[in-house]
Amino acid sequence: MQIADRLSVISESITLAVQAQANALKKQGVDVIGFGAGEPDFDTPIPIKEAAIEALRAGKTKYEPTAGTLEARTAIADKLRRYNALEYPPDQIIISVGGKHSLYLALMATLNPGDEVIIPAPYWVSYPEMVKLAGGVPVFVRGDPSNDFKITPQQLADALTPATRMFIINSPSNPGGHTYHPQELLALAEVIQKHPHITVCSDEIYERLLFNGQRSCSWGAINWDLWKDRTITCNCLSKTYAMTGWRIGYTAGPKPLIAAMNKLQSQMTSNITSFCMPAIVNALSDPANEKAVENMRLAFEGRGEHMWRRLNAINGITCVRPSGAFYCFASVRGLLNRPLGAAAVVCHDAVEFSRQLLAQVHVAVVPGNDFGFDDHVRLSYATSKSQIDKGLDRIQAFVNGEAPRRSLESPS
Ligand code: PMP
Ligand code: GLU
């Protein structure tokens, strides 16, 4: 059967592939430590679940408006005003099937063939692929680990060409774990504000997972009057409320953009699952959920600090201190091109390193290649502290060529 040419330019999501690989091994009875998953290990707060169950019981099982119910969009508009200082009315919001779908529709609705999109590296694996599917051209700007992977205004300025149409910013970031401070966002904004044809797509899905007392800053809030017509604000419920499987994302933006996304979505998926709409209202407005969100955030902060310290204590690994999200993005450059482990294997890049780590000591990490760094690996700390310790013992043992302190077979 013929497969469309458009698929030849993209690859499968490595993050989902690693997760599937680790799960398949677990099913075979292998004691795998999974640092691959980009999803909270907590359950969705009960009031949110109850809202969906109640909606099902009440018969909310029919088509809804493509963009989502007015109640759900109003709850999102209220949240954006209250938490982000963004003034989007409900008719400037569209709810889609997860943050991924929101971003994809936004890019499909705005890019023309050949349009250049500036993507700071390291980047979430799906950005370049989505840009390519939409006919655009990804242009990478490499953040330096010495600057916590953050790009500088000069780097952004140097990447601009007459074909630049969009800048994607993700803060807090997957996989870098870094966060731009408001002053740093302002400095980047000053570079592109003189170029009115450039739109900013701000992926704010990790906004609530911030450490050290920081508070997130939405791109649009840097200067609402200046940016309200040039900003696409994407978010979802997946990470904040531990709702990855629910598939709820949303986009807020200028009216013509939301209308275009509506048109596209009406021909693709229609509305999201109808009985999830009241769950959105509950998630964003029931104060009971705030405690759960804060507890998860605190847990991630403690685990992130712990994993970061342990990673840096391993000879050959260096890691930038995470300030948000739930990932450590560690350099394994010092471990490449030399014999490693009891089997004295030699790895030339992060893909080989990750493969060997899984094969020899059953630890799943995501190679950095598809995040733009082929000598880094991503470790998610959305898992228990005991799993983190066990996994890091194994990595240490693999690197040193010793037997792990905790046996490979011991239950977690
Ligand atoms: N943006 C980033 C940076 C992500 O890490 C993810 C994780 N999947 C998404 C968007 C998409 O989120 P969702 O699971 O809601 O599709
Ligand atoms: N965002 C998560 C990750 O990066 C989920 C997987 C995906 O959608 O890519 O691992």
Structural topology:
Blueprint lengths: L13 H14 L5 E2 L11 H12 L12 H15 L8 E4 L1 H13 L5 E6 L4 H8 L3 E6 L10 H7 L4 E7 L11 H11 L6 E5 L20 H4 L3 E6 L12 E4 L2 H14 L8 H9 L2 H25 L5 E2 L7 E5 L7 E2 L4 E2 L3 H12 L1 E2 L1 E2 L8 E5 L4 H16 L12
Helix pairs in contact: 2-10, 3-10, 4-5, 4-9, 6-7, 11-13
The chain binds 4'-deoxy-4'-aminopyridoxal-5'-phosphate (PMP) and glutamic acid.
4'-deoxy-4'-aminopyridoxal-5'-phosphate (PMP) binds next to α4.
Short description:
This protein is α/β, with parallel strands linked by helices. It is 39% helix and 15% strand.
Share in helix: 25-40%
The overall average pLDDT, rounded, is: 95
Query: What is the helix/strand order?
Result: HEHHEHEHEHEHEHEEHHHEEEEHEEEH
Strand order in space, largest sheet = 2-8-7-6-5-3-4
CATH superfamily of the largest domain: Type I PLP-dependent aspartate aminotransferase-like (Major domain)
Please report the total strand number as a whole number: 15
Number of helices: 13
- Our measurement of the CA-to-CA distance between the termini, rounded to an integer number of angstroms, reads 45 Å
Unreliable residue runs: none
Q: Which fold name is given in CATH as the topology of the largest domain? A: Aspartate Aminotransferase, domain 2
The percentage of residues in β strands lies in: 5-15%
Tally the structural domains. 2
Instruction: Provide the list of bound ligands, each named once.
Output: 4'-deoxy-4'-aminopyridoxal-5'-phosphate, glutamic acid
Which architecture of the largest domain would the CATH scheme give at its second level?
3-Layer(aba) Sandwich
Query: What is the C-alpha radius of gyration, as a whole number of Å?
Result: 21 Å
Question: Which structural class do the helices and strands define?
Answer: alpha/beta
Overall CATH class of the largest domain = Alpha Beta
